[in-house]
Design goal:
Elements lengths: L2 H9 L15 E5 L4 E4 L8 E5 L4 E8 L3 E4 L7 E4 L3 E3 L4 E4 L4 E5 L10 E5 L4 E10 L6 E6 L7 E4 L3 E2 L41 H18 L10 H13 L3 H49 L14 E7 L10 E4 L5 E7 L12 E11 L4 E11 L7
Parallel strand pairs: 17-19
Antiparallel strand pairs: 1-4, 1-14, 2-3, 4-5, 5-13, 6-9, 6-12, 7-8, 8-11, 9-10, 11-12, 15-16, 15-18, 16-17, 18-19
Length: 388
């Protein structure tokens, strides 16, 4: 090990190696801007799980393609596991009762849990934070919120990360008055909810001030991405105002505001449908790719279990001068790259070089290479011989 690297380890400094520009992982760094999203995967297509403020410390475990940094989940992070795969223990602990149980990355913004980074093994112990029932009838199920399992990360865009502490700056956001044109078509007046309606008696000035506050909060909310839009509280306040209105003008303004929320709710619904369609297409493409790979391989029997993996092929080393680029790839029998592979900390891929393996982990996409990328959590040897 070079002296510069040794000094970095001893001193706790995360300096770049003079010879190859690499960092010593993990290293501590700081967020340089306010309201920075933490995401469930290395890309904007992955849903956000939290937000960080300027000056907050993060622990960076690797640099991924596209400029995304894999970090330790911040405090308050969690994952979801189906309760049917857990057996309650003592002190809020539970034991996993099956193999390859999916731990789904949770978000504090919504109940979305589409991303799977880690699969738990039978006998593994997890910390249960909470439980929630979902669905109705035959689809009703219980999900347990657990502490992030070992090997699970959250991603922050590297542009907002620096190794030098920064002084938090006040967050300034310019309110946009005309996010969308006012909607003048009438909306149906809801039945007043006695538990939600505020006491009557607001003066016209107070009524208008509350209406303006709701409108500004709505405008600020929709500046964020649609995955974090939550209208319940704003809609409750607007309906409360509508129930208190004493003039036609007040009722009209409250109805316009409610209609504006409906418009944004419809936009969010369409965005969610597009995201769900993208996920379905991705799963279908992966299935088709595996079918094609099976047809090309002579040893078809060993491929019957490939649906257990996120990628299969011969593991080979990739040489790239680009910092943070993947160093491994899975290739087919013709030497064509099926996907690139990067190990999470603790996974040693060198042992499997030249061998046919199955890899499970977090799948992503590298636009520059027009290829998929897997952050390898587990590696399984599919055949013992070395391929030449």
């Amino acid at each position: 090990m070079r002296l510069s690297v040794a000094v970095s380890v001893v001193c706790g400094l995360l300096m770049a190696s003079p010879a190859n520009g690499e960092r010593v992982f993990p290293y501590k760094a700081y967020i340089t801007a306010d309201e920075v999203y933490v995401r469930s995967g290395p890309g904007q297509s992955y849903y956000p799980t939290d937000k960080l403020k300027a000056g907050q410390e993060v622990e960076v475990y690797r640099h991924d393609p596209g400029g995304w940094y894999a970090t330790k989940p911040p405090d308050g992070s969690f994952a979801w596991v189906s309760a049917r795969h857990l057996e309650a223990g003592v002190d809020d602990l539970a034991i996993v009762t099956a193999d390859r149980v999916a731990a789904r990355v949770g978000s504090r913004f919504s109940d979305i849990r589409d991303v799977i980074q880690v699969r738990l093994h039978k006998g593994e112990v997890v910390e249960v934070l909470d439980a929630k029932k979902t669905g109705i009838g035959a689809t009703r199920a219980t999900w347990c919120k657990i502490s992030p399992p070992s090997g699970e990360f959250r991603w922050v865009f590297g542009k907002y990360v620096d190794t030098n502490p920064v002084e938090p700056q006040p967050f300034v956001r310019q309110a946009i008055d005309d996010v969308v044109d006012d909607v003048h078509e009438p909306v149906s007046e809801p039945e007043p909810d006695p538990e939600l309606a505020a006491p009557r008696g607001l003066s016209p000035e107070q009524y208008q001030a509350e209406l303006d506050d709701i409108d500004i909060e709505l405008s600020i909310m929709v500046l964020e991405e649609s995955t974090v839009w939550i209208f319940d509280e704003l809609r409750r306040r607007a309906r409360s105002l509508l129930s208190q209105s004493e003039t036609a003008v007040q009722r009209g303004r409250a109805r316009i505001l409610l209609s504006k929320m409906d418009r944004f709710a419809d936009i969010k619904h369409r965005y969610d449908e597009v995201a769900a369609m993208h996920d379905r297409s991705e799963r279908l493409n992966r299935q088709l790719s595996r079918l094609k790979q099976t047809d090309r391989l002579a040893d078809g029997e060993s491929e019957l279990q490939d649906d257990r993996y996120d990628g299969t092929g011969q593991l080979t080393r990739v040489v790239s001068p680009k910092l943070g680029a993947p160093r491994y790839a899975l290739v087919d029998e013709r030497g064509e790259v099926q996907c690139y592979v990067s190990p999470v900390p603790g996974v040693n891929l060198r042992h499997y070089l030249g061998r046919r393996v199955g890899v499970t982990g977090t799948r992503g996409y590298m636009p520059e290479q027009n290829a998929h990328h897997i952050m390898a959590q587990h590696v399984s040897l599919l055949e013992g011989r070395v391929l030449r």
